[in-house]
Amino acid sequence: MARRPGYATLAILQALANGYQHGFDIIDITGLPGGTVYPALGRLESEGRLLSQWEDPTIAQQEGRPPRRYYTLRPAGERLLEEMLQQFRAVEQLPANRRVRPRARRA
Amino acid sequence: MRGTPILRFGGQVIRAASTLAPGWRRADLRNEWLAELEATASRLHCRGELTTGAQLRLLARCCSAFFLIVWMWKHEWSLDTFTHDLRYGARMLRRRPLFAAVAIGTLALGIGATTAIFSAVHGVLLRPLPYPDPQRLVKVSGIDTRRDGIALLNVSVPDVADFSRLARSFDALGAHNHGGFFTVTGGGEAERVARLLVTSGYFRALGTVPAKGRLFRAEDDRPSPPDVVVISDGFWRRRFGADPGVIGKTLTVIGSSATIVGVLPREFVHPDPALEAPPEIFALLDQDENVSGRGGRYVRAIARLKAGTSLEQAEHELQAIAATLARQYPRNNTGRSVALRPLSTAVTGDIRAPLLMLQGATVAILLIVCANLANLLLAAGTGRTNELAIRTALGAGRTRVMRQLLTEALLLSLAGGLGGAALAWWLTLGLSRAAVLSHVHEGAIAVDATVLLFALALSVAAGLVFGLLPAILVARSAAAPSLRDAPRHTDGPGGHRTRSILVVLEVALSVVLLAGAFLLLRSFSQLTGVDPGFRSRELLSLSLAIPSARYPDEAVPGFYARLSERLRALPGVESVGAISILPFSGGYSCDGFQIVGRIVSEGNQPCAEVRTADTGYFSTMGIRLLAGRQFSETDDGRAPKVIVINEEMARQFFPGESPLGKRIIYSSRKQNDAREIVGVVASVRHFGLSREPASEFYIPQQQPPIYNDTTIVLRVEGDPLAIVPRVRDEVRALEPLAPIYNVRTLDQLIERSVTDARLRTGLLAAFAALAVLLAAIGTYGVMSVAVLQRTREMGIRLALGAARTDLVRMMIIQGLRPTLAGLAVGIAGAVLMSQAIAGLLFQVSPTDPLTFATVPLIIAASGILAAWLPARRACRIDPVIALRPE
After folding, report:
1. CA B116 to chain centre
2. What pLDDT is stored for residue B647 in this prediction?
3. B288 and B415 assigned to the same domain
4. Span B861-869, mean pLDDT?
5. Are residues B70 and B83 in the same domain?
6. C-alpha distances in angstroms, B544 versus B285, B710, B728?
7. What confidence tens digit (pLDDT) does each residue in B673-688 have?
8. Does B139 reside within a domain?
């Protein structure tokens, strides 16, 4: 049931950590399609890893545009990002062995 | 910037997509995406990068909203959301433990009762008969077209042979008849075994394949058939130790030896569970017309339809053949025809109607429970309007709130279902014990996977039934944006009217149930008040059989005379008698006879039940002598042959004249000569209290035909069963090899004959009591809420000087409205119901005035009580408190 978070999740979390807070901005910065980013945001929110809030309407009004929704990481999201980054770094550090043919990781 | 094509087209795409989203997410989705689109487009515009290509890419991104919607719906119905709802629901229920307990408890009662009865319906009515292609099996019954043409009768052996020979609609057609019990000795304990006489078509029709050897062949169906038998698997294992070489061995059956030609498979069952014991020896019916003539209608016939032949076609063909036979044999077959019905219906005939009635009753109870819970949930929903309004304000849509409420209802119903399954399991234990008595195959009634599945489905259905209405109404009222303060005393969702309608439904159902229970109770009391024709108290009966090898016919009467002598001498024994077939034992022996000097019109050969009795039987049983004399010691084999007839036979065959001195010829295989009627005794209800006595005549035990098995009756002082050990000792002292069986008091026998009626009456009465109680609780609940809403009004009225008693009366009268409406609807329903159960009633009219007068009184009384309690409470209130501003 609980899917292992993959690259898309990592990218989205990192984008959020880097201060990109709006859905379309995340799509632009990660290069992921909208059909991937938004469901991932929804899932992360329902898992309690991030928080979505609406911008203060007065600010938006002053700038003459509708209020935007923005997403921020919650502590659980930050932890997940850290864990995933560690895993990816660990992959990078795997020792090389020339004599054994590299095999596909079991799914 | 505004009016750029991307904002126009992209906005349209987003708006279109958002309409497909789940209601509560719709606005968020639309607003977020429109804002994002505008922000991104204006950023690109500022940088001068809003080229056509960029616009197209943005449009494509807008289209990806549809992917998000697919995900939303998947998430909406995902297990996570469901478990969240469940957890929330469980929390809500924990907060109201009393409500939860009442809801789960009543649901468990409703579901448990329904499931338990279903396990019987499933085990007895729905389970297919254990034969290949059971839907092609039919029972062939005789009907008398000159009488009602409805009563299903047995048929004669020659008729069956002709049907079997001439009809083209059947793969096979066979007859069977109870062949009595006999005793097997040697190779272990003496044992009493039931024999079934069949034609070869019997096994062919059932599609039986022998486990060993062969079954009967078509050429075996002839006068003086070969002495071959087929034995059951159980008999083969018990008596022959599962000897593989059993085929060809001989078995001594009632004085003659027979060769075993086949062994039946283990799973074989005779399709007539009404027999006292399942038959284990199968022998051939004699086709000799002198033994079993066309007038002797005592066999039952079954047949297997050809594939593709309908029951109606087959019946049509058989009726045509029957018409031909009636022309050919006018003496015996005038007015005789046949009727077909599915064997499954025939097997479950007696138990079908009561079972369906009980199932209907339990469903009615479950509906009442559901109506009550719907009411409770509506009332509870009123109290939760604030909570739900907050949820709505926080973005939960109407469907979302509805789902939450439905989940809570399902949680309740599943918990109730769990309790119900446990209750059903317990009830089923009792039911199956009772059912074994009422001729249902043992083990047929049990809680198995199907029954559990039924309970689960029932729980879900119940949850939907009682949860849906409140969920819709409450969610609707919650969705109306109303965070106004404290709507405590408003009408609440659904309003008083909805709740009153639910009460009308409950009361109507309980009226139907109560009327049904009343009718059954009345008829049961009529039934048990019937005089069986003998005094059953302090009467003991036991059957025994003496080995025919050691007792030739002429020695049998002497043995029984000596035994009676010894039993009479026992302390506590007042008198002793013997009879071939005891009343209420289930046995029967109907045979044709002729009255000397009377010309019988064609097709009117009389027939009566034949019994063999000894000199002490009538006085021991307390059967009154109406005319002439009883048997005496001198009515032995050398004396002139005599018979005693019963009152019914005298009435039917000798109306307006004295039967004494008249002579009849009773043809049996062993004897065929005239016997003089010397006495008339009172009729006995041989086949049960509800069955009218049949014509019956008695032959003295010392005159042929002689049987070596008999049933002894003893009138004793005190507990009849206490004397059994001493009786056994006496029998053993005289003949150690005689098995004693069927040791019962006559009271037990009569009780057994009314067990079915007692069980269904008791169950329906219990269900009806439950229904009335639940309906009263429902009325009480609605009244309580209504009263609460009117507390202030009561305060004003009291303050203005209204008398409390007047107020209570007013409240009761208003509170009684739904009860009275339910009563009216219920009476109409009860009239319909009583017609449906008319077949189960005995000496009580379906429109019994007493029932239809009492039931409304009880319902009205319970309604008044349920309305009075809250009304009294409301009017006790201090007007000052009631009028205090909130």
Report:
1. 11
2. 93
3. no
4. 87
5. no
6. 25, 6, 10
7. 788 999 999 999 988 8
8. no
CB B612 within 8 A of CB B645: no
In this model, does residue B529 exceed pLDDT 50?
A: yes
Taking each helix axis as running N to C, give the angle between helix B398-437 and helix B97-120, from 0 to 180 degrees, rounded to the nearest 10: 40
Give residue B261's pLDDT.
92
Task: Extract the tokens encoding B72.
Answer: 């939303």
Dig out the tokens for B720 from the structure.
Answer: 């009849």
Q: Is residue B90 part of a domain?
A: yes
Are both B586 and B726 inside the same structural domain? Answer: yes
> What is the structure's pLDDT at B374?
86
> In this complex, is the C-beta atom of A2 within 8 Å of any C-beta atom belonging to chain B?
no
Closest CA to B456 of B417, B483, B420, B429: B417
Is B695 found in the same domain as B557? yes
Detail the DSSP E strand segments found in B614-770. Answer: 625-628, 642-646, 663-666, 674-681, 696-700, 709-716, 740-745
Residue where a domain stops, chosen among B48, B77, B106? B77
Nearest-by-Cβ selection for B39 from A24, A39, A42: A24
DSSP assigned state of B589: -
CA atoms B612, B618, B619, B620: torsion sign: positive
B182 & B280 share domain? yes
Same domain, B632 and B621: yes
The C-alpha atoms of residue B554 and residue B704 are separated, in whole angstroms, by 9
Query: In this structure, is residue B539 part of a structural domain?
Result: no
For B25, nearest residue in chain A (alpha carbons): A42
Q: Name the residue range of residue B843's domain.
A: 497-530+747-886
Residue B37: which residues within 8 A CB-CB, separation 6 or more?
Answer: A24, B6, B7, B10, B11, B14, B58, B62
Do the domain assignments include residue B717? yes
Q: According to the model, what pLDDT value does residue B436 have? A: 47
What domains are there in chain A, each with its CATH number? 7-91 (1.10.10.10)
- The arithmetic mean of pLDDT across residues A15-21, rounded, is 91
Using a CB-CB cut-off of 8 Å, the residues of chain B touching A1 are: 79
| CA nearest neighbour of B287 among B209, B226, B367, B196 | B226
Residues of A in contact with B83 (CB under 8 A): none
Give the tens place of pLDDT for each residue, B421-472: 999 989 888 877 765 445 566 666 777 888 889 889 988 888 888 888 888 8
pLDDT at B188: 58
| Shared domain check, B834 and B696 | no
What distance in Å separates residue B63's CA from the closest CA in chain A?
9
Contact B35 A67 (CB under 8 A): yes
Nearest Cα to Cα of residue B382 among B502, B503, B498, B507:
B498
Peptide bond into B705 cis (omega under 30): yes
pTM over 0.80: no
How many separate domains does chain B show?
5
Residues 75-104 of A with CB under 8 A from B: none
Whether residue B68 and residue A66 make contact (CB cut-off 8 A), yes or no, is no
Compute the average pLDDT of residues B243-264.
82
Average pLDDT of the residues in B597-610: 70
Among left, alpha and beta (phi > 0; psi -120 to 50; other), residue B627 is beta
Across chain B, what does the average pLDDT equal?
83
Per-residue pLDDT band at B758 (split at 50, 70, 90)? confident
Instruction: State the average pLDDT over residues B702-727.
Output: 86
Q: For residue B611, count CB atoms less than 10 angstroms from its CB and return exposed for 0-12, middle for 13-18, buried for 19 or more.
A: buried
3-state secondary structure of B611: strand
| pLDDT of B560 higher than 50 | yes
* Contact between chains at A42 and B75 (C-beta distance less than 8 A): yes
Residue A40 has pLDDT above 80, yes or no: yes
pLDDT at position B487, please? 44
Mapped onto helix, strand or coil, the DSSP state of residue B256 is strand
| Residues B122, B42 share a domain | no
Q: What pLDDT is attached to residue A107? A: 44
pLDDT of residue B321: 92
- Contact (CB<8Å) B35/A38: no
